[in-house]
């Protein structure tokens, strides 16, 4: 069994297999109703716990649907309703859940919660977002890029905005999938130091996007950020909005991605989100396919 905790902790060969398997499973389902079972049932008789300590639309629904399509069953648990949210240790929670379920997906705050869960669980644990990373999102993004434009290896990817958890997983992917990553944003919102060496910085967003094959952004205020930071962040990030003028500086066939949920006309204009470069809804759909491939890899199924 394998945990899927972070892209930089996963072997590049396994990552490539996951992307290829996601694409194949997506192709095999074309035109079928969402509730139809896959031809293969690799999760038959498997029970999967989906734990959420933060809100979610895409992660929650895509994992739930994905498990069911592969023949398994799910239970969606809110962290606040579990004893975990009332003082029971993560280690004890992991040991107990491992007696009931075959796999655990958790969305949490501190990375340490995920790490401890994986240390003490005897079943695979999947990272459904922490304050530091969001690896399932980036696997879906790689799948999305490649289905539109071919191999991502050697391409130029530009992130404009906050150096947050989604950026961190993109930086890990830049190393594992061998693409060039540029960060453009204001110094107070630089990515954490542990990511140094995985990307280059260009403070001027207009210069940063020159020659870009892919432009990516995310919300200016993440779920773990204090809401009191909102006004300050808007002032810091306004110049990094992805708008038509910025996209016009990238390659003519560049793609635009956003993991969603978006604050339309803040980090990106609706004209870009709904425009010809945007693949945001393919990205959202590919969460389903990429995570199905991740779950199969975790279970060796
Ligand atoms: N992109 C993403 O993880 O969305 P949710 O917060 O809706 O799960
Ligand atoms: N950076 C965002 C991503 C949401 C999917 C957050 O952590 O809130």
Automatic annotation (TrEMBL):
Gene3D superfamilies: Aspartate/ornithine carbamoyltransferase. Pathway: Amino-acid biosynthesis; L-arginine biosynthesis; L-arginine from L-ornithine and carbamoyl phosphate: step 1/3. Coiled coil: none annotated. Carbamoyl phosphate binds at residues 56-59, 83, 107, 134-137, 259-260, 287. Residues 153-297 form the Aspartate/ornithine carbamoyltransferase Asp/Orn-binding domain. One of its GO terms (biological process) is citrulline biosynthetic process. It is found in: Cytoplasm. This is Ornithine carbamoyltransferase. It comes from Sulfitobacter delicatus.
